[in-house]
């Protein structure tokens, strides 16, 4: 049975830089307030009407494909993780296929909606496909364009200051060597689903959890994803920050230890931990709990913000380009986010 390895990786971030000071034009906040709570200094925003999650994902994918030493026509399958797709449907997977001009091969495309842990979920799916012998070259992309759906008022600042735009991609390949992905672990708990969510728009038709969003509930077929009340209130993400923080710091450590136990490895064996870039304070707490040094953990949320499904592949590519990840290194990836969903991956770097 073959193993799967990351044969190529790439990332793309928009050129538009928005600092914490820039955000003070739109809301009552400050650089000190944002850095103290999140560790973020600046983030990137895509150019409206010119860039999308698909175009950014394609830019990252082209780099990953080239570095993997294959042509785009040799890609067997596409997995695209995002919570901010170009369209309600179809998903970004087929749009990426079209953007890369590989529709003639008619390969499959899968969309993943696991938010912050979307890349980890996608990595696990790709790993199983390759190990089963079904595919040899799988393109996995995580891309987000949060800037199109945030509340840039003081009321929305707790969420809006956190997120940025960008994309990361990896090309998973089959290998007969004892390297690559060693293990993946996926979990979820829907108990607190609405505590980190974007309720509107959706098929609840404006009525959810005993809250009336302007939809008259009847047995008559039909309805709308968008009601007048939704438009008036705005469709923005909502987050119970304290609850998310408390859950994240526990599940991050648990799922990393689960992967280590499965492989018979120790915390000290980790050469590089790349956590999902949700909040620098969460990453620092996890680092301290695991007893890892600064050289064993890579964070870049300071300059990109939280790019959700794109955060791990962007950070992974940056760390690799900087020479912080080398052949034989044990690399650990971990994420926690909306759902709640969380997961981890251990990789023996090829």
How would you characterize this protein structure?
With 350 residues, the protein is an alpha+beta fold. It has three domains: 3-178, 3-Layer(aba) Sandwich (Peroxisomal Thiolase, Chain A, domain 1), CATH 3.40.47.10; 181-192 and 239-348, 3-Layer(aba) Sandwich (Peroxisomal Thiolase, Chain A, domain 1), CATH 3.40.47; 199-229, no CATH class. 31% of the residues lie in helices and 24% in strands. The protein has eleven helices and 15 strands. Helix 3 crosses helix 4 (92-99) and helix 8 packs parallel to helix 9 (280-290). It is globular. The mean pLDDT is 93.
Write the layout of secondary structure elements.
Blueprint (H helix, E strand, L loop, with lengths): L2 E10 L3 E4 H4 L7 H8 L3 E4 L7 H16 L8 E5 L10 H8 L8 E5 L5 H14 L5 E8 L12 H4 L5 E10 L4 E9 L7 E2 L9 E2 L2 E2 L15 H6 L4 E2 L1 H23 L8 E4 L4 H11 L10 H4 L6 H11 L8 E8 L3 E8 L2
Parallel strand pairs: 4-5, 4-6, 13-14
Antiparallel strand pairs: 1-7, 2-3, 6-7, 8-15, 9-12, 10-11, 14-15
Number of domains: 3
Q: What structural class do you assign from the helix and strand content?
A: alpha+beta
Mean pLDDT: 93
* Spatial separation of the terminal alpha carbons: 17 Å
Features of the shown structure:
Peroxisomal Thiolase, Chain A, domain 1, single chain, 3 domains, alpha+beta, four-stranded mixed sheet, 350 residues, five-stranded mixed sheet
Brief overview:
The chain is α+β, with helices and mostly antiparallel strands and 350 residues long. It contains 11 helices and 15 strands.
């Amino acid at each position: 049975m073959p193993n799967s390895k990351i044969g190529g990786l790439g990332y793309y971030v928009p050129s538009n830089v928005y600092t914490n000071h820039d955000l003070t034009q739109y809301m009552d906040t400050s650089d000190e307030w944002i850095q103290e709570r999140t560790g973020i200094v600046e983030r990137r925003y895509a150019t409206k009407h010119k860039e999308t999650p698909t175009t950014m994902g394609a830019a990252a994918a082209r780099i990953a494909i080239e570095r993997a030493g294959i042509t785009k026509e040799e890609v067997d399958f596409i997995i695209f993780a995002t919570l901010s797709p170009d369209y309600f449907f179809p998903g970004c997977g087929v749009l990426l296929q079209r953007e890369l001009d590989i529709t003639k091969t008619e390969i499959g495309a899968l969309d993943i909606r696991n938010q912050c842990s979307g890349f980890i979920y996608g990595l696990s799916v790709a790993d199983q496909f390759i190990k089963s012998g079904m595919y040899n070259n799988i393109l996995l992309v995580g891309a987000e364009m949060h800037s199109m759906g945030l509340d840039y008022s003081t009321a929305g600042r707790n969420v809006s200051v956190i997120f940025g735009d960008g994309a990361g991609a990896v090309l998973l390949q089959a290998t007969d060597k004892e390297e690559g992905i060693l293990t993946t672990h996926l979990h979820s708990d829907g108990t607190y689903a609405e505590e980190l969510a974007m309720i509107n728009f959706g098929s609840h038709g404006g009525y959810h959890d005993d809250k009336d969003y302007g939809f008259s509930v009847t047995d008559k077929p039909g309805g709308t994803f968008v009601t007048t009340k939704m438009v008036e209130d705005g469709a923005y993400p909502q987050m119970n920050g304290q609850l998310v923080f408390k859950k994240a710091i526990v599940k991050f450590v648990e799922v990393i230890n689960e992967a280590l136990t499965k492989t018979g490895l120790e915390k000290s064996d980790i050469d590089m931990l790349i956590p999902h870039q949700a909040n620098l304070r969460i990453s620092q707490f996890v680092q301290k709990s695991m007893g890892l040094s600064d050289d064993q953990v890579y964070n870049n949320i300071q300059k990109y913000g939280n790019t959700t499904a794109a955060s791990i592949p962007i950070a992974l590519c940056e760390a690799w380009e900087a020479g912080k990840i080398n052949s034989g290194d044990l690399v650990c990836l971990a994420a926690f986010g909306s759902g709640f969903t969380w997961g981890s991956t251990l990789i023996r770097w090829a």
